[in-house]
Specification:
Blueprint: H1 6-11, H2 17-38, H3 44-51, E1 60-67, E2 87-93, E3 100-107, E4 111-115, E5 134-143, E6 146-153, E7 158-163, E8 165-172
Antiparallel strand pairs: 1-2, 2-3, 3-8, 4-7, 5-6, 6-7
Length: about 180
């Protein structure tokens, strides 16, 4: 993470939180400036999602899926070599009101890195920290056609995905009562 680092996040919990807030604002403006250069290279779905930089802040990761056949898990093996089949899907529940369910889909994945727990302690999260709240995420350009999405969670866990294509769906989250 270049803009929303662990250290910056931790600094909000210190007596110097006002200074941290000013620093965060400067970093956020710098991030939005570099994002404006990257977004035209993405498809319309990616632009719509990443334009709202804090859309999933404090959200909950419900599911992480990684595989070569997520779109067709029938057991039938596809024939032929397709180097662009690796896919990652994240299912996330937003913390905004009204709550929404997001399905993030990364295609042509060239790298995924999951660190659980992460390397630097952020916030106490018990003996089994899991992921905790979605803290901050950044979209950067790894190479001219490879995007990199890094996510930092409250537990200090991180997910880094490098990919060529991105799409998402946003759905209303309805609470069902037991019958």
């Amino acid at each position: 993470m270049k803009y929303f680092t662990r250290e910056l996040w931790i600094s909000f919990q210190t007596p110097h939180w006002q200074k941290a807030t000013k620093h965060w604002r400067r970093r956020f403006e710098a991030y939005k400036k570099q994002l404006a250069k990257i977004l035209p290279k993405m498809n319309s779905s990616g632009r719509a999602f990443f334009r709202d930089a804090l859309v999933l802040h404090d959200g909950t990761l419900a599911r992480l899926e990684v595989g070569d056949q997520l779109a067709a898990p029938t057991g039938d093996r596809r024939r032929g070599r397709n180097p662009c089949r690796a896919e990652v899907r994240l299912s996330v529940i937003s913390d905004r009101s009204p709550k929404r369910f997001y399905l993030l889909r990364y295609e042509c994945v060239s790298r995924i890195d999951l660190s659980l727990p992460g390397k630097v302690e952020l916030f106490p999260s018990g003996e089994y920290p899991n992921f905790g709240d979605w803290g901050y995420d950044e979209l950067t350009l790894r190479r001219p056609t490879i995007f990199r999405h890094e996510i930092l969670f409250a537990s200090r866990a991180t997910i880094v995905t490098e990919f060529k294509q991105f799409s998402f769906r946003r759905m209303a989250l309805t609470m069902q009562t037991p019958s």
